Amino acid sequence: MGFGYYEEESAIGRVYDRRLLARLWEYLRPYKASVLASLAMMILVAVLELVPQLIIRYAIDKQIRAEPPTIEQLPELTGLFFLTLSTIFVARYAQGMLMAYVGQRVMMDLRMALFAHLQRMSIAFFDRNPVGRLVTRLTNDIQTLEMVISQGVVQMLTNLLMVSAIVVVLIVLDWRLALLMYFFLPFLIYAVRTFAMAQRDAFRDQRVWVARINAYLNELITGVAVVQLFNRQGENLRRFDHRNRGALAANMRVLFWYAVFEPTVVLFGAVTTGAILWYGGGNVVQDTLTLGTLVAFLGYMQRFYWPIRELSERYTTLQAAMASAERIFEVLDEPEELTDVDDPHEVEHVRGKIEFRDVWFAYHEENWVLRGVSFTIEPGEKVAVVGATGAGKSTMMSLLNRFYDIQRGEILIDDVPIKRYRQRALRRHVGLMLQDPFVYTDTVLENVRLRDPSIAPERVREAARAVGASTFIERMPEGYDSMLAERGANLSTGQKQLIALARVAAFDPEIVLVMDEATASIDPETEAIIQRGIREVTSGRTSIIIAHRLNTIRAVDRIIVLHHGELVEEGTHAQLVTTGGIYARLYELQYKDQDAAGSPAS
Known about the structure:
Rossmann fold; 4-stranded antiparallel β-sheet; single chain; elongated; 602 residues
């Protein structure tokens, strides 16, 4: 919606290109043979690029300007000229294809590494990082990196090698002309360094603004209904305009430096060429320099400045890639906050005993959400947790799934601290039904079993029947094979909750956590089905229910009352309603009307 608490992404410090290239080499290493073959093609191209000018020099000095002039060897020289160019073409093609293959493979490996790393990150990590920013890492940044691997690095090395070879050849051809040319080089080197530093900063800034736009768009699109409901389109447009203008300014800085640099190189080339033509032409007239040597020298000069111009373009791409690589590795370097112990407690099934021992937890520093909470739930016991908004009820559910680690105390299942369980095993034993369950763009079947092939389709159907979801599923055009829209847009709120209940039933955990919030958008008939489904999935299992419906609270064995993160009361409905405490006041404010109405769901 544009009002998220995570603000603008900050620019990262200086890009250490060598360090990043060293890390990229780790991903290139599996394709070392292809890289080495490409480097061999690069060296071949660099050497062959020197040959055509030597052929031209020989043809002018030894044939056309010979005494007497002759064309005897011109056919062979012409053939050698075209053979050289053809070989260069083939070598460049082979080099390009090899590096394109390597680039695609590295992009695939990096994307898989990044995705796998994100899968292991804690919920706290996703609290800190907007989705749009992470999507940018997986898409734009990796695509930019692929471009420099497949098109940039080897080509830059080829050009550097060619420039170095030309420097040597020019001295061999005529050291006087070479010195005249090199007189201008310090100015060109200064221009290149200035451009490189400015372009690096401009590209880093550009990537920051792209990530900001993606993060904002993701939040805005997700919350578009609320934006339209409260007519905040104008404010959101203003906020997006700020980011859009920031991206425009960053892009213009990149384009400015690119537009300045290429004409600068061309200008240096033109000035140097004019000086060489003036000085060399005089030497040719005075017979202290051959025409062939001057023509070859001018040809090599053009070959000298062409790679420098191309290096400027490649450097632009390289800086974009380095900015992207920096941001990719920034995510990959994020430590996994929740890790499994070296000797985990292995068990196929749990009895379902739950114990909180003096649990203290805060999302940020010491802003405590839970304060010294202690209680025990016996296997098969059904417990409701009630309290005002912000009391810590949902946090308790998250902690039991170990989405976060507590700062003090201990949480145990079957008298074993949950940190001793593997996270995957723990979450296999603990099922969670969210109030607003997530629905994937996939079939009903896959949404219930979450693409777990070990859960047979028949088991999914049994689970749906058990919780009452089969009625609406079987009325859909293709039943369990019907496709669901993104975030379940083609389902009602009640139907999504029934899908969530069917998930819990299909996975059959020993402990069930239920967010049982009353929702005005659910009709009484569907709510009654949901209530029966909740009773079904909690039957015979240890269950904790965040209860907002009176009939749910009455059906549990015990009620735990949280207030400002502390456990203040505990007992049955009949016991607590007569004590005059927090629960009694909640009953008066929230549940008494339901009681008078005979409860809306039964």
